[in-house]
Amino acid sequence: MSLIQAENLTKVYGTGDTAVVALDHVKLTVNPGEFIAVMGPSGCGKSTLLHLLGGLDRPSDGDVSIDGQPLAKMSDNAISQLRRRKIGFVFQFFNLIPILSSVENASLPLLLDGANSAKAKQKATEWLTKVGLEHRLASRPDQLSAGQQQRVAIARALITDPVLVLADEPTGNLDTKSADEIAGLLKQVAKTWGRAVLMVTHDPRIAAYADRIVFLKDGRIVNETYLGRDGNGAGDLEGHEAGQTRTVSQ
Amino acid sequence: MSVRHAVLGLLAQRPRHGYELRAAFQALVGGEANWDVKPAQIYTTLARLEQGGLVVEDSVEQDTGPEKRIYALTTPGRQALQEWFANGIEPEHQHDEFFLKLMIGLVSGVADPYRLIHTQRMHLYQELHDLTEHRSQADPGRELANILLFDKTIMHVEADIRWLDMIEGRLDEIRRQPLPEPEVKPRGRPRKIWNLSG
Fold this sequence. Notes:
The structure holds two protein chains of two kinds. By secondary structure, chain A is α/β, with parallel strands linked by helices. Chain A has helices spanning 46-53, 76-86, 102-112, 117-130, 146-158, 176-191, 204-207, and strands at 4-13, 20-30, 35-39, 61-66, 69-70, 87-90, 164-168, 196-200, 212-217, 220-226, 245-246.
């Protein structure tokens, strides 16, 4: 069973003559341990796709299932809870709280879910150490480099032990070296820590870290290509060989 | 090419024999896999440099094996090296085989140009994936030369992908223009114009 299943996913903004079809009956599957990049020109629907997969918005048609649970049948509260516990988010501009330390920032999702602060602090320290920030636990964002801030954001995304990590242009604000490090870290999130990772990016070099690249255009998937030959926990890639491409006409 | 200048530069560090020069060169450029220079090329280069007065035989190392000639830089050799350092290097422009393929596709009419671009793009993404994988496995503490070369190749592949996007965007325009045809020049002797009127 796939971790993330999107069927006929559609989002239309506006009505009548001014209606904009941001996403047009998209079908997508993501498995545990898979690292997927979504690419496409501005306005192709990639951010909309990310928002729908993360339960941040409801589709106009079609549905998303996360870990077997279809979102369409869930109330807003239930979706919020699912989002808190099963999904981690990483954004382009890090979105850290400026007055909080690394540990405090990383703890937030657990605290918001009602965990006690000692447990949250312990988990935050654990994850910050795993992403290489054991010497920066007490630092505030303004004392960290851009790359380090994004690492805090990734630790924060992982603290609730989510099954899915969604990243929206995670390297958009980083220099080349940090961008490569963060892309490598996201790959580790999938390969070593077994989460499904879906990353929206416009940078081909960063997209190439993924196992699979999905190309969107005008709200539809126009291409998909499998990269590499990962033998370690890539999940069920449905027997696809590296370099295989399918052109999708919907 | 630049092997002769590399030899001059290595000799500026200290006099060496041919075997040592080749080993030093390979080490600097990140190994044989990156840039293979055959021993013959080093010895030919040394011979030419000696002929041109840029290097001289300094001494002959004698140990149990065959004699090894040691070469050293001359003053003109040092000057030639300085000139190389002082001037820019011409970027290499290789013939672009994909460009050729696209043009042939358009001329022959047997290939879908969009399909050609798509196939090339997917191939480039796979290249990019493999390159970044290899690069991430190189040790920055010991293999910096390799990493720098990987970075260059990666950037070139990125540029190729951008170029493909550009072509794809303008393919309709390209197809509307007449294809380049060779100029037909008249051949042979000019034909005589017979005056039949008288």
